[in-house]
Structure prediction request, 170 residues.
Amino acid sequence: MTSLTHSLCPCGSESTYELCCQPFHTGASQADTPEQLMRSRFSAYVLGNSQYIYDTYAKSSQAAQSVKEINDWANAYKWLALKIHSAEVINHMKRSPEQFVEFSAFYIVDETLCELRENSRFILEVTEHSNKQEPQWRYIDGDIIKHSELVKIKRNALCPCNHYATSWSL
Prediction:
């Protein structure tokens, strides 16, 4: 797993990793919103933190996953950037148990820049955290809206990651 403690967070938030997704990855805090969870999961893919990705699946989705499969899939790609298109705003007084985040994840595979656009579904599940039961956001599944190859990277071409403000954000 790569360390980015004082670097910009891979999720594109423009905060440092230390102040953004790292507390979620270490268990020091939990995501308050589905968008925070989505961002932290993307950062976990970038950093190869497959255990975190597995742990943040909803219980109903974990049975179809394994840390090894997640790790193999995540490491097959070079994750570049995350763009959040929409996220439901939560009224903290009346939390809906299910929320959606629409995003695009940009990555390179086989010398091709690709975009995966998905509408992800999250659920508020009661989990054990710091020896107490509390509701936490978890990823259930997502509907793929678009999965496309954007450009084939030519041999002497500048890496597509240089077209982003940082190598991690749009």
Notes: The chain is about 20% helix and 35% strand. Confidence is low (pLDDT under 50) at residues 164-170.
